[in-house]
Design goal:
The chain is built from 14 helices and four strands. By secondary structure, the chain is mainly α. The strands form two sheets. A two-stranded antiparallel sheet has the order 1-2. The longest helix is centred in the middle third of the chain and has 28 residues. It is elongated and about 125 Å long.
C-alpha cells in the first residue's frame, strides 16, 4: 500500500525516499519498460533503460524540498525561491478616469454632482490656485476691496461637488481681517508715534457678525474635539471686542488733548461736552461700562463646559478682570461711589485668581505678567 500524503506535515516511511509532491512535476520523464514476450520486435535500448530514481534527501527541512525543486536540476536563478515582486501590467487609473468608468457602468456606481459633468476637477483646482494668488497679492498691496472679492469667489468654488471649508488653511482668519479693513478709512499718520490704521465702526460690526455666523455654523462637538469650532472663534471675537473698546477710548482721549479732525467718532457717543475733566471722566465710565458688559457675556458663556476650562478663554478672562479692576480703582478716585467701586475691583482680582487656578488645574502655565499683576 502506498504511503498516505498529508497536506501540512508530511510523514514518510524510512524505506522510501523523501521528496515533495511538486518535485515530481519537475523531474525528467521516465521511459516505461516493455514486457518481454509481448513484442519480439522491441528494441534492446528500450528494454535496457533503467528508470531515474529521485535523489534522496533524509532532511525534512531541506530547502529544495520545501520549495518544490529537485536537487538534480539547476536552480532557476533570480534569488530563488524569493522571486521579485511582479508589478501589475494593467493600466493605472487616475481619480478622474476611475470616476468616468464608474459612471459608465450600468447601473452607474458613481453619479457626478451637478455642474461637474462639463468641468474637470483639474480646471477647478487651477481656478482656485489663481484666486488664492490674487487674494494674497491684494492683501500685500492693502487692496482689501479686491481681496474681499477674491475671497468670496474662493468660498463659492466647488471641488468635486463639495464647497470649500472656510476653516481650512486659516481662511476664517483672513476673512475677518478683510471685513475689518474693507470698511476702514486710510491710514492716519501720527506725527509723534507711528503709522496706524483706524478700524471703522462698520468694519467692527461686519467682523463680529462674521464670527457670530461661524459660531452658529460650527459648534463644538465632543466627537471631534480637536476641530476648529466655536472654541476657536469665541476668543477671537472677544479679542476683537476688546480692540474696539480700546480704540474708541484712545481716540476720545486724544481728542481731549488736541483737536484731531481725523477722529470720526461723534461726541454724543462717549458723552463729551467740551470740558476736558468731565470728558475724561465720561470716557472712563464708557470704557468701564463696555468692559463690564463684555465680562458679563464671557461669564455667562463660561458657566458650561467645555468653555469653563478652555485655556484661551480663561487667560483672556484674567486679562479682562485685571483691566476691570484698574478701571474700577481709577473711577473710584473721581466718583462718589468710592467704596462700591473698590469692592468691585477686589472682586475682579479674585475672579482673576480663580481663572489662574483653573489654568493651573488644566496644566497650562499662564504668562508671568498676569500672575504678578493678580497677586
Amino acid at each position: 500500500m502506498p504511503p498516505t500524503a498529508h497536506h501540512f506535515t508530511p510523514v514518510y516511511p524510512l524505506h522510501e525516499p523523501q521528496h515533495s509532491f511538486r518535485s515530481k512535476q519537475y523531474a525528467p520523464p521516465r521511459k516505461r519498460k516493455r514486457q518481454q514476450g509481448n513484442d519480439d520486435d522491441s528494441d534492446d535500448s528500450d528494454t535496457n533503460v533503467e528508470p531515474l530514481q529521485p535523489v534522496q534527501s533524509h532532511d525534512i527541512n531541506d530547502p529544495y524540498r520545501v520549495a518544490g525543486w529537485p536537487e538534480n536540476i539547476p536552480l532557476p536563478g533570480s534569488s530563488f525561491p524569493h522571486s521579485p515582486a511582479v508589478k501589475p501590467k494593467g493600466r493605472q487609473l487616475s481619480s478622474d478616469n476611475l470616476q468616468k468608468e464608474l459612471a459608465g457602468l450600468k447601473p452607474p456606481l458613481y453619479v457626478p454632482p451637478p455642474g461637474e459633468q462639463d468641468t474637470t476637477p483639474s480646471l477647478r483646482r487651477h481656478h482656485l490656485s489663481v484666486l488664492t494668488t490674487i487674494l494674497h497679492t491684494s492683501l500685500l498691496k492693502h487692496d482689501f476691496v479686491r481681496a474681499g472679492r477674491a475671497w468670496g469667489m474662493i468660498l463659492r468654488t466647488d471641488i468635486m461637488g463639495r464647497p470649500l471649508d472656510v476653516r481650512t488653511h486659516g481662511r476664517w482668519g483672513v476673512g475677518a481681517e478683510i471685513l475689518m479693513r474693507k470698511f476702514s478709512p486710510e491710514n492716519i499718520i501720527d506725527e509723534q508715534l507711528y503709522n496706524r490704521t483706524i478700524i471703522s465702526d462698520e468694519g467692527f460690526e461686519a467682523a463680529k457678525d462674521y464670527y457670530e455666523r461661524l459660531i452658529l455654523q460650527f459648534p463644538y462637538q465632543k466627537t471631534n474635539p480637536n476641530a476648529i469650532s466655536s472654541l476657536t472663534f469665541y476668543p477671537a471675537m472677544f479679542g476683537l471686542c476688546i480692540y474696539e473698546i480700546q480704540q474708541k477710548c484712545r481716540l476720545a482721549y486724544e481728542r481731549t488733548r488736541k483737536d484731531s479732525p481725523e477722529v470720526e467718532h461723534s461726541d454724543s457717543e462717549l458723552g463729551l461736552n467740551g470740558n476736558p475733566e468731565e470728558e475724561t471722566s465720561a470716557i472712563r465710565r464708557s470704557e468701564l461700562a463696555s468692559a463690564a458688559s463684555l465680562a458679563a457675556r464671557m461669564d455667562e458663556l463660561m458657566l458650561s463646559p467645555p468653555f469653563d476650562t478652555y485655556p484661551s478663554l480663561l487667560q483672556l478672562r484674567v486679562s479682562i478682570a485685571l483691566w476691570l479692576a484698574d478701571l474700577y480703582r481709577t473711577t473710584a478716585d473721581s466718583d462718589d461711589d468710592d467704596d462700591e467701586n473698590k469692592e468691585r475691583a477686589s472682586m475682579e482680582r479674585a475672579k482673576a485668581r480663580r481663572c489662574l487656578d483653573r489654568l493651573k488645574a488644566a496644566g497650562v502655565t499662564a504668562p508671568q505678567m498676569l500672575m504678578d499683576i493678580s497677586d
